[in-house]
Write a structure and sequence with these properties.
Structural class: alpha/beta
Strand content: 5-15%
Distance between the termini: 45 Å
Number of strands: 14
Strand order of the largest sheet: 3-4-2-1-5-6-8-7
Shape: flat
Largest sheet: 8 strands, mixed
Amino acid sequence: MTGITVRDLMQAGDATPAEEPRGLSPIAERIIDLPPQTPYSTRVLAGLVQAADFVIVAASGLAIYGFYPTLRDGFEPGYLVASIAVAVFMALAFEAMQIYTPSALRSLRHQGLRIIACWTCVFLAALGALFFLKIGTSYSRVWLGLWFFLGLGLILIERAIVAGIVRRLAHDGRLDRRTVIVGGGAPGEQLIRALESQRDSDLRILGVFDDRADDRSPDIVAAYPKLGGVSDLVEFARRTRVDLIVFSVPVTAEARILAMLRKLWVLPIDIKLSAHASRLRFRPRSYSYIGMVPVLDIIDRPIADWDVVLKWLFDKAVGSLLMIALTPVLLLAAIAVKLDSRGPVFFKQRRYGFNNELVEVYKFRSMYVEASDATASKLVTKGDPRVTRVGRFIRKTSIDELPQLFNVVFKGNLSLVGPRPHAVHAKAADKLYDDVVDGYFARHKVKPGITGWAQINGWRGETDTPDKIQRRVEHDIYYIENWSLFFDLYILAKTPFALMKTENAY
């Protein structure tokens, strides 16, 4: 089960009869009506604390060197090297001793002795290195002693502050991993009991979803309600935040698992298969763990934790620079649109965004006001009389898309690079896109973009046939599965050259 591919999921529909959606339970609707707080990644939080530890240790060593009277005569680079080296080894040692886990960050009382012991060991190791390298006389013993106590004291003070912040975030639910269990009955109950037994767990179980409607799937599992069927989980996850899906279904039920995954893989959610009660044993490195519960990673969220931060910074920084650089083009286009025909300069259209959320996208108006099609129910074709004279030019050159930089920089609902957002009623061969392409909504697992992998490979413009939208979706899914910051840079660099090919843009 660890080698599931997109092809497997596309072909899994014949494994079991399709489940008819039964609708969300009243309890599920109440959960949806209570919107969760904006979450914070525990990995990013741990990384920030680790960086703070590094800065505190290095800065305290250099501060003592700078203020200690007998060390002010000239600059000795050895003190700078020692400060940075000890700070690096300290951060690595804390990581190895699991001092950056959510439970460790939450309580200084339980981790204080471990922090003191680890810092002492790092310092003793540093002293040993100075001795064996025969450079101990190059460093002031007073400096080393003051650094040991000042560095330790500052770290403990910092951790006390961090513990208070983390407890507050945990109390507000910002560090919770909102989790649902797929599969009820005895296996589901065993899994829930195992997950709840974890100390300082960040899981918040919302309920159970099960594709069975008989006595094997009771309405209450380990005190948690059944919220609906597996098909209902897709709707539930699009209306409220779900961070993790854990299957309690036996590993051996491969056909059933594939049939359910075929419905769920379009969601931007981590999906794991519980292995705690399985008699099958894989190699230890095949497992990951939720606390002490072994699981098999089936589908990972494509962009998570630090990747989200990097992509956000990339969008804001590069998007702002592009807005500044393209200001003359934006102003000229706005004037041309205004002079060419009556009506507003900008055109706003609702399109599908991340996780099927509806977002309002900005464009320069390229059609006559009375012919504007806000839902894109009719595709623009070559020589379309609805398009203005200026509109034909800005559509061919994609200048009409430039106002979407406002979506990227100010609203944050678009990215510079990603699958292009399609209008709600966009069609190919008179069929909605999701009716044409199986797994179409998988392209919404990441934030949509102004440009994308499909566009630079020639799949822009009219989508009048099923094959054209199929090829777009295939390229979008390839981008999602292979995302990296360098991939975004490559696509962005290739976009101006792709725009020179205007034969498919009307």
